[in-house]
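In response to reviewer comment 3 from the previous cycle, which asked for concrete evidence that the modeling workflow produces usable outputs, we include below a single protein chain processed end to end. The sequence was submitted unchanged, and the resulting structure tokens are shown without manual editing.
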Amino acid sequence: MPKPKNPVFRENIYTFPNFLTFSRLVSAPVIGYLVLKSNHVWAAPVFIYACFTDLLDGFIARKYGLQSIVGSVLDPMADKILMITLTGCLAWIGNLPIWIATIIFGRDFLLGLSAIYYRYVSLPTPKTMKRYWDFSIPSAEVRPTTISKYNTALQMGLIAVSVLKPLVLPSLTVVSQALALQAISGLEYTVAATTILSGLSYVFSKTAVKILSEEEIEERRLNQQTLMSKRETQKTRTANGDKDKK
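The workflow returned the following structure tokens.
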């Protein structure tokens, strides 16, 4: 008799870290719109919120065991969409050099094509469009390289400076403005160099993208079931304790 197949494993994607990541994803067009309207007073705090969620979602996921495959994909995706949106908007209004925007766009475009390819080749059969876009079905895991992490931080810094520049520069003296512009120029060249290097690191790294085997997917399914069972046990104990107090 043929061996029965295990049901398709679907991760729990409705976690607080994933909610924070999704809110960062949604904030990208909002900040972009505010930048295009030169409303930097509102664009700055929303951007700070987006940066804060980038730090908080990973911390919560690691501390409470809420890591997920969809989170490993959604987190860098949110970062990239935020960066691409603000890079384009800032370049459009002249707050960011076109050549910097071109380098960032070029690398992210190539990485996007790679992500589409790896998702397809790693997706368990049957390979349908519905299953392709169902990110609760894990298939591949993205692991950012070291230089890529530095590049993301530097890009965030450059975008933050570009957003805040119209608010801060007018309040500086002429000499301070000149020094600030020189520092910004140095940051721009640093971002350009690390962007190119980070793109190459994904090409030559053997650990940046990992296609999950059936055994690894099954292991994750069992780990998630164990975690959910522990949470249910804890809820039951808490509920019983509340009843005893009453």
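Residues 93 and 157 are 18 Å apart (CA to CA). We consider this sufficient to address the reviewer's concern, and the full set will be provided in the supplementary archive.
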